[in-house]
Amino acid sequence: MRESSVPLPSFAPDVPRETRASSLPAQNTDSALAAIPETTAQPSPQPAVPLTEEAIQAAQPDTQIPADNHQPADILPQHPVEFDEDGNSTTDHSDYSEEFLETYSITSSIIDYQYENGRRYPSSRANHYMMPNDEDEQDRLDLVHHLYLMLMKGELYNAPIENPQKILDLGTGTGIWAIEMADKFPGARVIGNDLSPIQPGWTPSNIDFLIDDFESDWLDQPDTYDFIHSRNLAGCVADWPRLISQAYAHLKPGAYLELKESAVWGWSDDGTLKDDSPVMDWLRGINDASRKNGRELQVYHKLKGFLIDAGFVDVHERTYFLPFTPWPADPYLKEVAKYQMVHVQAAVEAYGLRFFTQVLGWSPDRTKILFALVKDQLRDFSVHSYTKV
C-alpha cells in the first residue's frame, strides 16, 4: 500500500504467487494490507498512450536454480501431499459496448507481427519479448485466468478494496481480468495496457484498452489509481524496482498494488521429479535464457523486498500449491491440477520456443524433440511434481 500503507500478499515458488501492496494515508496505518512509501515525493507525471475433461487427454535444456524453502503456512498444504494411487495410471458479462474503446489509432507497426517456427509474436520489443500473441497463446492466457480463479476460490483479487474509482491492469493480455473487474465495479474506470491489441471488441462501457509499454515512463498524473494489478509478467520486465516505483507513484494514498507471479520451477517431495529429467532440463533452459535476455523469469521470491524498498507498507505474501498433474488424492487439488496439466502442455512451447532457438541457439528440430519429451513427462501421474504461485 502507498504512504498510508498496507502489505502485499506474497507467494511462494512452488505455485502461482500473488503480492499485494497497498497505500493508505498516514492516519490510516491501522487498517490492514496497506503499502505506501515513507515519503510523499512523487516522480514527475507522465501521460499514457473453461476447459473440458476431453482437453486433458491431449499431451525436456541446461542450468540450476536452488530450491526455495520459503513456504508461507497459510496457503501451502502440509507436505507430503497425498497422491491418488488410482490416478497413477464462461462468465456472462453485461453492459457491453459495441465499439472498441481506444485512445489513439493503432499504427501499422503494432500489427506488423513477426512469425517464427509456426508462432506469431508482437513486433514491439521483438528482441526482448519472448512470448507469442497468437490465438493459441490467447487461449493459454484465458486458461491461466481460470486457474487463478480456482486457486483463489473465485476471487479476482486479494486486496481489501471496496469502491475503486480507477483500476489499472498491467500487461492485460486478452483483457479477461480487466473485463471481469469492469463488470464487478461498473462505477469504476478500468484501464488495461499491453503491447498487443489482442483484446476483444465487445467490452463493458467502463473499460479502455491501451497499446502501451509499461516499462516506459508512465504518462498518467501521480496519485491516479485506487488499484493496480499485474499477473505473470516475469520474463517481460527488465527492471522490477523501477516498475514498482512507478506504480507506487501513480497510486492514491491508501491504494493497493497486487502482483501475481508463479515460480517458474518444479519440485517433488518424494523425489519422483528427477534433476536430470526433461522437465528440469526445460526449466533450467528457460531460466538461463531469461537471465541472458535481461528479463528474469525467477522473480516471485524477490517481489516482497522490491515492494518494501519502494516504500510500500504492510506487504504480505500468499503462496498457492499447484500440482502439474492430477496426482493428489485431495479432490480440490486434483480438480485444479486437471486444468494445470492442460495449461503446461501449452506453456512448454509458449515459454520455451524463442528462448531455446534465439537465446540458447538450439535448432528448431532439437528444441521440438526436447519439448515432446517434456510434454510426455508432464502427463505422467507417477511423477508427483508441483510448482508454486
From TrEMBL:
Residues 21-31 have a biased composition (Polar residues). One of its GO terms (molecular function) is methyltransferase activity. This is Methyltransferase domain-containing protein. Residues 1-51, 64-94 are annotated as: Disordered. Gene3D superfamilies: Vaccinia Virus protein VP39 (3.40.50.150). Pfam families: Methyltransf_23. It comes from the Eukaryota.
